[in-house]
Write a sequence for this structure.
């Protein structure tokens, strides 16, 4: 859904850019900076909304304590400032392109969003801080990693309180991956902890994080490509030219039509990866007990088995499905 929201962000920024700048004006550094910052902000905001929802509505249902509001706001604001600064810098670097083509909003948008998406892991690494695990936990995790087929992971304990819940996250798209474990996870029961660790090991081994970045970039290329094709086909309603406000309704329709399936494909890939990681984890540690525990933490039935649309849009299989798959996998062991 972030993809669709990002596409809608383009339309909003486009509308604003068309209303505020003509081509000559958009070449000025300050104007280019403003456009870049607005594009970066429009691609960053949907993620913030999802994260906030997860933190304050979803985490408590897992029985976890959300971050203090001030802490959460600081983390979000830091990410926002970095993202917007990056977007502005990219737009400034690109402003000579504006001289060459009437396509500058689309080109600037793709360049800014691509930079923000690909710099995302680096930005995340900048403000999630960790410290080495105690040697006992590290040795135990290394055994789980080795039997899961991964030899080099830098395990760390999250110290920056930028994430809560029974969570581990992998940072670093290239080079040795860093897996940060929340203090809550490190303090959890062995079963539960080992399962989450084995699940993360599976993501690392199958390079799921890199895959998601590639899909994200491909999704953007498809969205911009669709607009370009419709423009080339030159339907009547595009005769006004893409920078004309009259092209906005068809542009929005095309983007919505393309971005929605792109978003569903991203979610579908993510669900497939989560399923795979669950099964790998069960095969690795030989117990689905943790999955059962995890599901038991959810008290809301709509969470356990959400509606069809929520299911399609979700990056994770439903807890009910994960539980059933885990039971089947154990039975066949
Ligand atoms: Zn996962």
């Amino acid at each position: 859904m972030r993809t669709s929201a990002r596409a809608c962000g383009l339309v909003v920024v486009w509308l604003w850019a068309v209303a505020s700048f003509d081509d000559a004006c958009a070449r000025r550094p300050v104007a280019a900076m403003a456009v870049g910052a607005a594009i970066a902000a429009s691609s960053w905001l949907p993620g913030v909304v999802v994260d906030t929802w997860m933190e304050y509505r979803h985490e408590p249902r897992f029985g976890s304590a959300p971050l203090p509001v001030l802490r959460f706001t600081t983390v979000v604001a830091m990410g926002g400032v970095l993202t917007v600064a990056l977007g502005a810098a990219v737009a400034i670097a690109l402003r000579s392109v504006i001289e060459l083509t009437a396509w500058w909003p689309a080109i600037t948008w793709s360049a800014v969003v691509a930079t923000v998406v690909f710099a995302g892991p680096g930005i995340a690494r900048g403000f999630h801080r960790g410290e080495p695990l105690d040697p006992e936990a590290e040795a135990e995790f290394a055994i789980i990693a080795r039997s899961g087929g991964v030899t080099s992971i830098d395990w760390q304990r999250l110290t920056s309180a930028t994430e809560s819940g029974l969570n581990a996250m992998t940072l670093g798209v290239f080079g040795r991956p860093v897996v940060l474990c929340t203090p809550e996870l490190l303090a959890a029961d062995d079963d539960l902890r080992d399962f989450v660790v084995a699940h993360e090991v599976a993501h690392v081994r199958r390079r799921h994080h890199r895959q998601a970045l590639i899909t994200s970039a491909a999704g953007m290329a498809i969205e911009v490509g669709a607009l370009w094709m419709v423009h080339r086909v030159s339907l009547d309603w595009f005769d006004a030219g893409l920078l004309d406000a009259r092209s906005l309704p068809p542009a929005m329709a095309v983007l919505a039509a393309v971005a929605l399936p792109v978003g569903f494909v991203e979610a579908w890939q993510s669900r497939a990866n989560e399923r795979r990681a669950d099964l790998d984890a069960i095969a690795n540690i030989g117990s689905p007990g943790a999955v059962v525990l995890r599901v038991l933490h959810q008290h809301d039935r709509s969470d356990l088995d959400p509606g069809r649309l929520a299911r399609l849009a979700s990056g994770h299989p439903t807890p009910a499905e994960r539980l059933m798959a885990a039971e089947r996998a154990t039975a066949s062991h």
Remarks:
- The two ends are 36 Å apart (CA to CA).
- The CA atoms of residues 141 and 197 lie 7 Å apart.
- The longest strand covers residues 154-158.
